[in-house]
Each structure stands twice: as C-alpha cells, then as structure tokens.
Amino acid sequence: MICFPNAKINLGLRITEKRNDGFHNxxxxxxxxxxxxxxxIVENRATSEDFVLHVSGLPILGNTTDNxxxxxxxxxxxTVNVPNINVYLHKTLPMGAGLGGGSADAAFFINLxxxxxxxxxxxxxxLDIARKLGSDxxxxxxxxxxxxxxxxxxxxxxxxxxxxxxxxxxxxNVHSNTKEAxxxxxxxxxxxxxxxxxxxxITTWKNTLINDFEKSIFSKYPIVEEVKNKLYDxxxxxxxxxxxxxxxxxxxxxxxxxxxxQHFPNWIGKML
Length: 272
Prior knowledge:
Layout: E1 2-3, E2 6-18, E3 24-36, E4 38-43, E5 51-57, H1 68-77, E6 85-91, H2 101-116, H3 123-131, H4 139-142, E7 146-149, E8 154-157, E9 166-171, H5 178-183, H6 194-197, H7 205-208, H8 214-220, H9 222-233, E10 238-241, E11 248-252, E12 268-271
Parallel strand pairs: 5-6
Antiparallel strand pairs: 1-4, 2-3, 3-7, 4-6, 7-8, 9-11, 9-12, 10-11
Helix pairs in contact: 1-2, 8-9
C-alpha cells in the first residue's frame, strides 16, 4: 500500500509560556499543503527482521532506530500484533525546514499500517500514538486545518480555505534546530487571538499574523529574512517562516515569477 505524506505550513506561531515539563505552550494554525513524499509498506516474509527501512531521494541522518517511522511501528506493536514489514520512503521534504516532513511520514505511516493490516485502531488511539512521537505529529492523522494550542498537539478544527491562492514555499538550504530556536524565544501572550486575526483580509496579516521564531532565526540566518522579503517583492499577499524555520512561504493571488530567488545557493522551491 502506498500513501503520500504532505507538508504543513504555520499561519502565525506565538510562544505563550514556558511549561513546567520543559516544553512551551504555543498558539498556531496548521494548514496542510500539497508538497508530498511517497511512503509504501510491504509485508516482509523473507527475513526475521520486523522493520526494514529503505530511503531514496533526500538523505535522512541517523540510525533507523532513531526514525519516527520505526518508533511508530514499535508503539503500535505494544497495542496490536503487526507483521514484519519493508518500508519504502522517497524523501522530498527537506529536514530542518519547519514543514513537518518527518511528523507527516510518521502519522501517515500509522494510518497506512492501520488500514493495510486492518488493525482497527480508533482515531483516538492513532492520535495518542502520534502525540508520543512529536508535538505536531498528531495533526497529520486527520490532516485538516486546525488551531493548535498547548504543546501544539491540542486541536480545534477551523474553516480555512486557501485553495484560491498560489502558495510558494522556499527552503534556503538552512537547517534550523528546533530546540535551539525555542531557547531563543521569549514567551509572550498575544493581545489578539489567531482566530480573530485570520478572519481579517489576508492583506492585513503582514503586520498581525506573526511567527515568534522569526526574530532569532533571521538574526542568525539573514538569508531566511531575505527570502521573506523577496516573496513580498514578488507581490505576496502574505509571507511568513513556517514553524521554527527555515522554509518561508508566500500567498499570492496570481502565479508569481520567482526568478529573483534563483540566486539563493542550493535553495529548494515548490509552487502549489
């Protein structure tokens, strides 16, 4: 069975407070976008290995046991019996981009394993497994626009449709470390809620729909801010860094000409 895990972008991201458990509470809007990877599961009857991962496309650093797919598989095995499997992942989403690629792979893997082998996991069980893997992982189980709060794993479904717009996503070949990014942010409760902001015209979002990570990431990696400015120069209605970076997206009424971005070295771009 094959599926196509997709990326997400963050519309605004406010870090509201430091938690006693070392994490942070936040407020953001997760929105799924159609930049996808390819994931396939095949039952493995040839060897005694329970999980064999085959990766193509962009490289993944680290051992298989560190991969979220492997961790998801082991968590599911604690609940139900699953067969030995070969997993084939074609990686197209850059790591350290703030697009949720690894989290999407894990969540889609949970759904795919459940449907392929008829494990009969409930939606609640799948969400619980995903939450153990990462704060944004559970979002991809249902993969619909949500307001995310607390650690980014408590969701309120929202009605938001950007399908009438073009979305340009630019990754400037900078790997942003999420843990470091959080350490550089000073928590602050916003005066206006995100749900109120997104009800306003998109042209007003530039000054109100803020990502708190941008200040420190732009300071450390000026090229990321340069990408954002170039998107506005290309007539973006709204541009913002996604998550803790370093990918930046722009929303456009008409398909933009992004030739001005070609001078960024080794950048990866996607028009949706």
